[in-house]
Amino acid sequence: xxxxxxxxxxxxxxxxxxxxxxxxxxxxxxxxxxxxxxxxxxxxxxxxxxxxxxxxxxxxxxxxxxxxxxxxxxxxxxxxxxxxxxxxxxxxxxxxxxxxxxxxxxxxxxxxxxxxxxxxxxxxxxxxxxxxxxxxxxxxxxxxxxxxxxxxxxxxxxxxxxxxxxxxxxxxxxxxxxxxxxxxxxxxxxxxxxxxxxxxxxxxxxxxxxxxxxxxxxxxxxxxxxxx
Amino acid sequence: xxxxxxxxxxxxxxxxxxxxxxxxxxxxxxxxxxxxxxxxxxxxxxxxxxxxxxxxxxxxxxxxxxxxxxxxxxxxxxxxxxxxxxxxxxxxxxxxxxxxxxxxxxxxxxxxxxxxxxxxxxxxxxxxxxxxxxxxxxxxxxxxxxxxxxxxxxxxxxxxxxxxxxxxxxxxxxxxxxxxxxxxxxxxxxxxxxxxxxxxxxxxxxxxxxxxxxxxxxxxxxxxx
Lengths: 228, 225
Hints:
Shape of chain B: flat
Structural class of chain A: mainly alpha
Mean pLDDT of chain B: 93
CATH class of chain A: Mainly Alpha
Largest interface: A-B, 41 and 42 residues
CATH architecture of chain B: Orthogonal Bundle
Shape of chain A: elongated
Oligomer: heterodimer
Distance between the termini of chain A: 45 Å
Number of domains of chain A: 1
Number of domains of chain B: 1
Mean pLDDT of chain A: 94
Radius of gyration of chain A: 22 Å
Number of helices of chain A: 8
Low-confidence stretches of chain B: none
Order of helices and strands of chain B: HHHHHHHH
C-alpha cells in the first residue's frame, strides 16, 4: 500500500489484525449468546404462566432499559465484588454485557414472531402428537425464524457498533486499537513519530465500521421487505 | 456462595448532592439533544418524505453515515480527532452535539416514515381546498404524520438519554462519569452501581410509560388511518 504515508501501514495493520479481530470476536460471542438466550426467553414468554412471564419481562425491561455502558460496568466492576468467581477479562465482560442487552432485544422480537404464528399451527402439531417442546422446536420456531431474520440482522449491526464500548475497559477491539495507535504515534521516535494523527485514524475507524454496517443494514431492509 | 449485598444507605446522604449534579447534567444534555433531534427530524424528515431536491439527498447521506457508524466513534472523532484540524470543542459541547447529531439522524427516519404513512389523498384534499404545499404540510401531513412518528421518536429520545452515558469517555461529569468518580473514591461499588442503574431505569421506564400514554391520547380518529 504505497499510496499511504509511512506511518499509516503499521497502524492499519494493527487495527485490522488486533482491533477488528477483537471486534468480530466480541460480536460473534454476543450474537450467538443473544440469539440462543433471546429465543428461549421469548418463547417461554408466550406461556401464560404469570411468575415466569413477570420474571422474563423484568429481565427484558432491565437490560433494554440500562445504557449498555452501565451494564458493562455492572459486569466488569460490580460482579467481581459480589463474588470473585464472577471476574472476567475485558473482552468476555463486554461480550456478557452485549449478550444481556441483545438477548433482551431478541426475546422481545421472538415473543412477537411466535405470537404471530396462527393457532391452527399449534393445534395441528398437537394433533400429530407433538408435546410443547417438540411443537415449538419443530413446528412453531422454524416458521417464526423467518420473521426473526430481519431483526437478527439489525441486531448484528447494533452488536458490532455497540462492541466499541469495550474500549472503555480496554478490551482490544477496533476503537481501542485505534486509540493505542494514536497514542503510540504521539510518542517521539523511534516508538512513534511525535505527531498526533487522531483525525485520519478515527476517520478510518468510522469508514471501517461503515463498510461493515452499511451492507448489513441494506440486507436487513431487504429481508424486511421480502419476508413480511 | 457469599454475596456482599448489604447496601449502606449513608452512601446516598454522603454522595447525594454530587450524584444529583451529575443527574442534572445528564438531563440538561438530554433536553438540548431531544429538542435538537426533534427539530432536525422534523425538517429533514419532511425534506426526505417530500423529496425536496438536494436537501433530501444530503439528509440521506447524513442519516446513513450516522446510523452506520458507532456513536462512541463519533464522539472520539469530535473530541479527539477534530482538534488536529484546529477545532477544539469543550466536553459539554461535544456531549450535546454528539447526541443531537445522532438523535437527529434516527429521528429523520422516524419522521420520514411518519409523513410517508399519511395517505396521498389527504394531501390532495388539502390542495383541493386551495392550500399551498407548506400550508398542506402544516395542516395535514404534520398533524397526522407527526402522530404516527411519535412513538418511534420517543424511543429515539430514550436512546439519546442512554447514550449520554457515553460522555464518560470525554470525562464530561454527567451521571455515569460522576458515579464512576465516586466509586473510585469511596470503593462503595455495590452502592454506586445500584444507584446508577436504578436511576437510569427510573428515567427510561418513565419515558417508555409516556409512550403508552401519548399513544392513547394522540391516537388518530378511526377514519384518519
